[in-house]
């Protein structure tokens, strides 16, 4: 058996390999004379599924074009012969290859035991076939890279670094009539770069998670609302359950989906080359699709460890629909540079030369060649200690903060400036602070994966746009934050409302970690919130969910900044407490013994709290009213959402917690009175939440 390897980088095809082939040509002449000029090499190619045939077919065509050197026998087995998987042996016949032997080796069941039995059955049947055909060489698709084979102590002289044979076809595929192929498979109304190709297989080491991930993928694709070609999974254990998920969701009859068992490779090439995106966990996504620069979303761990081009975005932990949907918004419609990591289009000529160089008279004996140990093995301590991090931005009513946040939620470094009043000054300051932080991150050994932005107001997180802001942040309506930062820093950018970011921070780093349903309330200058339901952040149909500060708790309450009155924010926010503190101060009713307010210092909420602690009855009454309003809001949340936890966050949370719990005991239904209400233990929830958007949705690209 001979093995061809995949390269680790494009440059592997140059330099020493040119000399190798010159020497190989001389050796070929000597071996041909030794073997006898009339002696042909009998080559047996064994193929078991559509995926390996796409790699083996170019070699088979090459062998067929040189009948003076080779005789070809084709053995077909595995899922090629199964009707449920498209009877793909027919494409081998359509390619005008004679199938010498058909081996039925699949034990039905599609579980782990059936897979093992199928392998065993193939091993039992193949020896009889080989004894009958008596090939000199057998070619199979082994899916191993050169360095992996060397590390397994294989003889270096018997390993050829040829590249992937399918690239010979990919890099020469120029079908001007690709639109007819797109229309045939996806419909007459579909345009190039405006559809998705989805191909996802079960991961046999975690079938249950594979099925759940596939379900989330289909949900995300349904929400994304683009025409999608879905290929059925392979025959591995778990495939039947994945097909059941497709049928349960009505994918085969959904107007946006086309579900197929098989697409001929020539046509599949054109479909992925002109797709807006490919999604799934197929090796095709991380390997062949790079030849066209088509964006790819690689889900889960099935392809972990493979070298990939920059067109691949990994979503290793694809455990929520929102993550997958975010990835689709990031990748769809992009165009990346074409990659030749896995081949340069000349694999087949190399393989044929290699086959001709084999000395049939030389007895084959397994030899173990241990990889050489280099004398000076050194490691870069900076690389070992490199910290995967995010740039987090928090746009508050007063301050603008940027921080470098590590994967563990540690704030490595933080920068603070006053938030400018105009759009121009603000956006320039954000860019300046982020550029400086990114440069500093290199010195601090932090690898920045992306930028997360927390801002007040209503935000469209899919587009990275602030739709309109609170009155605290002026000139901040219809602002595209993603584009200028992404263009400047060359990093992915996420944007969300500050209340939502606080909830994300609790989910990843705080008391909401591991909980399926909880609500976060921020008590600061304003009142905000975030809702986590079934582990996912709720945005709402117009990105207005969790505006908890504007729950009305009194029909004749004070005016609110939103234009209404009686909102929680009108009672319990820092602005509301500042308003009441000023009234008391103007009437000389704020200060008590032990208190003073310097003339150059504005009266604020903290002075009211201090007065209450020192026994000021009027200040105590104002805080009790504010806490009651917040408590009534929490009761409404308990009755509406029925979360398992409510987290109070922000500078005022600790002052309200006891009053809120009293109101719940007095006003809430008995069925929700046991729900715990706690004070957040996170110091910077807005920054941590902004960072969590990056850390949850990005992984390190491998170039």
TrEMBL record:
<dbReference type="InterPro" id="IPR003331">
    <property type="entry name" value="UDP_GlcNAc_Epimerase_2_dom"/>
</dbReference>
<comment type="pathway">
    <text>Amino-sugar metabolism; N-acetylneuraminate biosynthesis.</text>
</comment>
<comment type="similarity">
    <text>In the C-terminal section; belongs to the ROK (NagC/XylR) family.</text>
</comment>
<keyword id="KW-0963">Cytoplasm</keyword>
<dbReference type="GO" id="GO:0008761">
    <property type="term" value="F:UDP-N-acetylglucosamine 2-epimerase activity"/>
</dbReference>
<dbReference type="GO" id="GO:0005524">
    <property type="term" value="F:ATP binding"/>
</dbReference>
<keyword id="KW-0021">Allosteric enzyme</keyword>
<dbReference type="InterPro" id="IPR000600">
    <property type="entry name" value="ROK"/>
</dbReference>
<keyword id="KW-0067">ATP-binding</keyword>
<comment type="similarity">
    <text>In the N-terminal section; belongs to the UDP-N-acetylglucosamine 2-epimerase family.</text>
</comment>
<dbReference type="GO" id="GO:0009384">
    <property type="term" value="F:N-acylmannosamine kinase activity"/>
</dbReference>
<dbReference type="Pfam" id="PF02350">
    <property type="entry name" value="Epimerase_2"/>
</dbReference>
<comment type="subunit">
    <text>Homodimer. Homotetramer. Homohexamer. The hexameric form exhibits both enzyme activities, whereas the dimeric form only catalyzes the phosphorylation of N-acyl-D-mannosamine.</text>
</comment>
<keyword id="KW-0862">Zinc</keyword>
<protein>
    <recommendedName>
        <fullName>Bifunctional UDP-N-acetylglucosamine 2-epimerase/N-acetylmannosamine kinase</fullName>
        <ecNumber>2.7.1.60</ecNumber>
        <ecNumber>3.2.1.183</ecNumber>
    </recommendedName>
</protein>
<dbReference type="Pfam" id="PF00480">
    <property type="entry name" value="ROK"/>
</dbReference>
<keyword id="KW-0418">Kinase</keyword>
<keyword id="KW-0808">Transferase</keyword>
<keyword id="KW-0378">Hydrolase</keyword>
<dbReference type="GO" id="GO:0046872">
    <property type="term" value="F:metal ion binding"/>
</dbReference>
<keyword id="KW-0597">Phosphoprotein</keyword>
<keyword id="KW-0511">Multifunctional enzyme</keyword>
<keyword id="KW-0547">Nucleotide-binding</keyword>
<dbReference type="InterPro" id="IPR043129">
    <property type="entry name" value="ATPase_NBD"/>
</dbReference>
<keyword id="KW-0479">Metal-binding</keyword>
<feature type="domain" description="UDP-N-acetylglucosamine 2-epimerase">
    <location>
        <begin position="144"/>
        <end position="356"/>
    </location>
</feature>
<dbReference type="GO" id="GO:0016787">
    <property type="term" value="F:hydrolase activity"/>
</dbReference>
<dbReference type="GO" id="GO:0005829">
    <property type="term" value="C:cytosol"/>
</dbReference>
């Amino acid at each position: 058996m001979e093995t061809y390897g995949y390269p680790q980088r494009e440059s592997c095809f140059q330099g020493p390999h040119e000399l190798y082939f010159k020497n190989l040509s001389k050796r070929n002449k000597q071996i041909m004379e030794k073997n006898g000029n009339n002696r042909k090499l009998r080559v047996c190619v064994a193929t078991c599924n559509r995926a390996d045939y796409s790699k083996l077919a170019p070699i088979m065509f090459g062998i067929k074009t040189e009948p003076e050197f080779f005789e070809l026998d084709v053995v077909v087995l595995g899922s090629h012969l199964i009707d449920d998987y498209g009877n793909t042996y027919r494409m081998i016949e359509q390619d005008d290859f004679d199938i010498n032997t058909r081996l039925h080796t699949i034990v039905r069941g599609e579980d782990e035991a059936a897979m093992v039995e199928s392998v065993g059955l193939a091993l039992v049947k193949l020896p009889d076939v080989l004894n009958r055909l008596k090939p000199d060489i057998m070619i199979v698709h082994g899916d191993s890279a050169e360095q992996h084979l060397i590390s397994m102590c294989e003889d270096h002289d018997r390993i050829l670094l040829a590249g992937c044979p399918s690239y010979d076809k990919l890099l020469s595929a120029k079908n001007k009539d690709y639109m007819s192929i797109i229309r045939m498979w996806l419909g007459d109304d579909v345009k190039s770069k405006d559809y998705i190709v989805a191909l996802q297989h079960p991961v046999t080491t975690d079938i249950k998670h594979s099925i759940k991930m596939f379900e989330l993928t289909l949900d995300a694709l349904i929400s994304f609302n683009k025409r999608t070609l879905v290929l059925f999974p392979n025959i591995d254990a778990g495939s039947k359950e994945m097909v059941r998920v497709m049928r349960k969701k009505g994918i085969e009859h959904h107007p946006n989906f086309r579900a197929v068992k098989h697409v001929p490779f020539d046509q599949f090439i054109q479909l992925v080359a002109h797709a807006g995106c490919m999604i799934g966990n197929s090796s095709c996504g991380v390997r062949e699709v790079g030849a066209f620069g088509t964006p790819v979303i690689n889900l889960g761990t099935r392809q972990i460890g493979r070298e990939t081009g920059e067109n691949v975005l990994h979503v290793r932990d694809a455990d929520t629909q929102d993550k997958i949907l975010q990835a689709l918004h990031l990748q769809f419609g992009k165009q990346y540079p074409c990659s030749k990591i896995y081949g340069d289009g000349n694999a087949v000529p190399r393989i044929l030369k290699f086959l001709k160089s084999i000395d049939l008279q030389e007895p084959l004996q397994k030899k173990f060649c241990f990889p050489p140990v280099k004398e000076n093995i050194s490691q870069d301590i900076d690389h070992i200690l490199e910290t995967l991090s995010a740039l987090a931005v928090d746009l508050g009513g007063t301050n603008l903060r940027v921080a470098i946040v590590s994967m563990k939620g540690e704030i490595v470094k933080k920068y603070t400036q006053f938030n400018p009043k105009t759009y121009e000054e603000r956006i320039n300051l954000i860019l300046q602070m982020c550029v400086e932080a990114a440069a500093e991150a290199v010195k601090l050994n932090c690898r920045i994966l992306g930028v997360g932005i927390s801002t007040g107001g209503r935000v469209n997180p899919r587009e990275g746009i602030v739709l309109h802001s609170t009155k605290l942040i002026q000139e901040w309506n219809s602002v595209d934050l993603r584009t200028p930062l992404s263009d400047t820093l060359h990093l992915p950018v996420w944007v969300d409302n500050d209340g939502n970011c606080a909830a994300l921070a609790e989910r990843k780093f705080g008391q909401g970690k591991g909980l399926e349903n909880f609500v976060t309330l921020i008590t600061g200058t304003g009142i905000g919130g975030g809702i986590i339901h079934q582990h996912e952040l709720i945005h709402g149909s117009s990105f207005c969910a969790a505006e908890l500060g504007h729950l009305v708790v009194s029909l004749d309450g004070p005016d609110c900044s939103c234009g209404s009155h009686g909102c929680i924010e009108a009672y319990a926010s820092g602005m509301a407490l500042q308003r009441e503190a000023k009234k008391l101060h103007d009437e000389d009713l704020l200060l008590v013994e032990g208190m003073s307010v310097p003339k150059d210092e504005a009266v604020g909420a903290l002075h009211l709290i201090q007065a209450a602690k020192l026994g000021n009855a009027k200040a105590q009454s104002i805080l009790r009213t504010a806490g009651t309003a917040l408590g009534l809001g929490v009761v409404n949340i308990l009755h509406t959402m029925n979360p398992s936890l409510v987290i109070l966050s922000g500078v005022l949370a600790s002052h309200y917690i006891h009053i809120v719990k009293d109101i719940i005991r007095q006003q809430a239904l008995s069925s929700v009175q046991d729900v715990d209400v706690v004070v957040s233990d996170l110091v910077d929830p807005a920054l941590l939440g902004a960072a969590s958007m990056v850390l949850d949705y990005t992984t390190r690209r491998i170039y």
